[in-house]
Amino acid sequence: MIQRDELIPVGKFTRPHGVRGEMSLLLSGDVFEDSAGECVVCAMDGIFVPFFIEEYRYKTDNVVLVKFEKIDTVEQARMFTNKEAYVLKRDCDGGQADFTWADFIGFSAEDTVKGPLGSIAYVDDSTLNVLFVVERPDGSELFIPAQEVFIEEIDYDNQHLLFNLPEGLVD
Fold first, then answer.
1. Which of 25, 117, 141, 162 has a CB 3.0–4.6 Å from the CB of 152, allowing a cystine?
2. Range of the domain at 36
3. Is residue 35's pLDDT more than 80?
């Protein structure tokens, strides 16, 4: 059975396209095009199910029209509307495809000096300086600049980020 930690989010299905069972997939990054996989995984009734790609084509830079095997009608395609789409990590550059900052949501955060910091709740990209918003165990929030220079280590399998943050940033 496929587990959540084996997946990388690639986008969200918006609606059926045409009458042959094609669907519009709104991409959230470029992981889909970097994936060598033959399937897209969606959560169906609480479990992750792989759907094998029959064909796909780009409609725009961030919208892909996807046709799955055995999905041949508009009615069948409708069950994917608003479903998150994932690819398997193992199908992406050895399991470590190019992540966007938002792909680190849910990762635990730790500093090399201060120790465990909490869990990345969301990414604030409303300004030029993108921030990880870390939810601390006491309920407070910690803002960490999303910059590679501060990331000491990434453990994709255990969803863990080890930071080496400047003194005073955590206090």
1. 162
2. 4-95
3. no
